[in-house]
Amino acid sequence: MRHEGRTAVITGAAGGIGRAYALRLAAEGAAVAVLDRADGSPVVKEILDAGGRAIAVQADLTDPASVVAAQAEITEQLGTADILVNNAGMYPNRPFETMTFEEWRAVFTLNTDALFHTAKAFVPGMRERGWGRIVNMTSNSVGLVIPGFTHYVASKMAAIGFTRGLATDLADAGITVNAIAPSLVRTATTEAGPAEFFEIVPQLQAIRQVQVPEDLTGMLSFLVSDDAAFITGQTMYVDGGLVRS
Ligand SMILES: NC(=O)c1ccc[n+]([C@@H]2O[C@H](COP(=O)([O-])OP(=O)(O)OC[C@H]3O[C@@H](n4cnc5c(N)ncnc54)[C@H](O)[C@@H]3O)[C@@H](O)[C@H]2O)c1
Questions:
Q1: 150: number of Cβ within 10 Å
Q2: Candidate from 19, 44, 62, 91 with most ligand 1 atoms within 8 A of CB, to mutate
Q3: 111 CA distance to ligand 1 middle (Å)
Q4: For residue 245, is it within any domain?
Q5: What is the pLDDT of residues 164-207, one digit of tens each?
Q6: Range of 60's domain?
Q7: Nearest CA to ligand 1 atom 36
Q8: Is the pTM for the entire model greater than 0.85?
Q9: Closest by alpha carbon to 119, among 55, 57, 58, 162?
Q10: How many domains would you assign to the chain?
């Protein structure tokens, strides 16, 4: 029960990697807010059935007012958030030459701008407490070239820059900020994408297996624990040894 007494907000937790994060932190004692544009109640039910504590809050993370409303609801129901996991993201595959500016902006609005909105909403409570953990999801695609991801790679590099800058600004408040970079992870969304990625990417990893969401949960649990108090501004590659940094 490593996270007993903590409240964790996990964005994009209605499915995929976020769902695995929510289940893991809840299993280790955290009260979890499943914050998603989609309905997170099936994940909440899984947590409650296992004896944990969770609520589902629906919000559009690209809308600052929606994030502010979600923060108020979470605080009212679960108290001040100690842990913020910025997991929601999108990764449409599109060659640069057919990409529109609207598509470029849509990716940045969720993968980068939303990190600003959630940090603005949840950092004040952490600062008041003098303890906080923020984890941002980036991708090992920042260190590898896969065609059709100019917008995505640029937005996930921005997430790394945001992680470093925020870590610096919040260190005096006992708040750490780190990032996790997975490889290609099997989720409903990646399964709906180009099938050849599942042939190509695992072969580039040292561990040549297709990554699953549960491969990432140990790192998340560590980063948001007291054990990781002296680690901040870092990007952790949990990618089967593809990027050897
Ligand atoms: N799956 C992979 O292969 C992979 C690899 C590297 C990095 N990542 C990153 O990990 C994170 C999770 O990936 P995933 O595959 O689990 O994604 P996913 O598509 O399965 O889930 C994303 C979640 O975000 C939610 N969401 C989307 N837009 C939203 C919005 N505007 N407001 C609120 N919620 C919104 C969706 O409803 C969904 O539940 C993303 O940041 C992604 O870029 C994924």
A1: 15
A2: 91
A3: 9
A4: no
A5: 999 999 999 999 999 999 999 999 999 999 899 999 999 999 99
A6: 7-236
A7: 12
A8: yes
A9: 162
A10: 1
